[in-house]
């Protein structure tokens, strides 16, 4: 989406006073999330052919490429979050979301979403990992141009380093406008009404179904605000980008209710995703998120919420399977 369009979305959110305050997640107010109009019950359908790619694919470069990287130049590119585009001295490029006053733990949402996606075998969530940058190095890399943002928002540790999430740069990132009326007119019948899905759209249809379940589990309130779904992932997959509105405690109730309603209306799911989700319970779920700087990445309270929403997702899907049969509901491979 064009920058101008993004500003319009942001301006609209601000005008409606619905945007969450950019501070501690627990205090955040929920933004408006549009929910599609009600749909009739879906027709029973045959399972999709087994040509939908669901295997995990490596996105861009890996963590090792940034092992000794120091910022050479950087600039602020965020719309709602504090995020910098950094070019490193070793030639690598990445987006970096620091710990900031707009939400001290929001950067963790990017890391947690990637780790959850990886544990579920999804190719959709871009790599994001913990990465510290010295505030002074960042200030130099921005040539002082973002000094006020750094002073007012970015939170440094006692040693001057700043925690954050590094997301290797996705070249030529394109967006899938999932939230627009035009796009909805296309994908809603595929997922809500059992409509025929053109061969070329099978991967996208399966990915939107998985996105709806994934975002309910992570509690991401920000997916439907525009420009938060990439279109050019590996193998033609959608990219679930911008996950720092996820894993809040508590999850803003308005968007959560709307996400639950979206899942209720979804009648086709990916079999491999649902199977992986069933296996990811108890300890396996907490292990999936791992640590950051020697501490659990997510707090016990956030983890408890994730476990509860995972159970909700599975119970909604299981009810559909009981009503319509596994072949119809686990439609995608
Ligand atoms: N890893 C990345 N690769 C390419 N572009 C990115 C990446 N991360 C962010 N961007 C660009 O920066 C914009 C803002 O990042 P985003 O994570 O969506 O933060 P915000 O919360 O401000 O919307 C995105 O819309 C995208 O254009
Ligand atoms: Mg965004």
TrEMBL record:
Residue ranges with Basic and acidic residues bias: 20-32
Residue spans of biased composition, Low complexity class: 33-49
Region (Disordered): 20-49
Name by which UniProt lists this protein: PI3K/PI4K catalytic domain-containing protein
Gene source species: Pendulispora brunnea
């Amino acid at each position: 989406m064009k920058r101008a369009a993004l500003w319009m979305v942001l301006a609209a959110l601000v005008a409606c006073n619905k945007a969450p305050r950019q501070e501690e997640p627990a205090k955040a107010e929920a933004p408006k999330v549009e929910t599609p109009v009600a749909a009739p019950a879906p027709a029973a359908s045959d399972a999709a052919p087994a040509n939908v790619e669901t295997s995990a694919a490596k996105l861009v470069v890996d963590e090792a490429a940034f092992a000794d990287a120091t910022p050479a130049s950087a600039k602020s590119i965020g719309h709602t979050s504090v995020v910098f585009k950094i070019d490193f001295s070793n030639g690598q490029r990445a987006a970096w979301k620091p710990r900031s006053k707009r939400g001290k733990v929001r950067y963790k949402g990017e890391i947690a979403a990637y780790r959850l996606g990886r544990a579920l075998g999804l190719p959709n969530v871009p790599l994001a990992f913990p990465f510290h940058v010295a505030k002074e190095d960042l200030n130099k890399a921005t040539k002082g141009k973002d000094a006020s943002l750094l002073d007012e928002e970015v939170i440094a540790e006692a040693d001057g380093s700043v925690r954050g999430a590094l997301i290797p740069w996705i070249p030529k990132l394109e967006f899938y406008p999932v939230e627009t009326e035009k796009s909805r007119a296309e994908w809603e019948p595929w997922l809500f009404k059992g409509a025929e899905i053109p061969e070329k759209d099978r991967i996208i249809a399966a990915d939107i179904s998985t996105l709806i379940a994934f975002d309910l589990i992570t509690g991401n309130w920000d997916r439907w605000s525009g420009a938060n779904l990439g279109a050019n992932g590996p193998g033609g997959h959608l990219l679930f980008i911008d996950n720092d509105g996820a894993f809040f405690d508590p999850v803003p109730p308005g968007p959560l209710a709307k996400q639950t309603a979206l899942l209720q209306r979804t009648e086709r799911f990916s079999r491999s995703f649902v199977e992986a989700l069933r296996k990811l319970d108890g300890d396996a779920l907490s292990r999936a998120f791992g640590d950051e700087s020697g501490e659990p990445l997510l707090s016990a309270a956030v983890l408890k919420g994730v476990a509860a929403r995972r159970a909700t997702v599975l119970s909604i899907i299981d009810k559909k399977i009981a009503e319509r049969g596994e072949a119809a509901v686990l439609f995608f491979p």
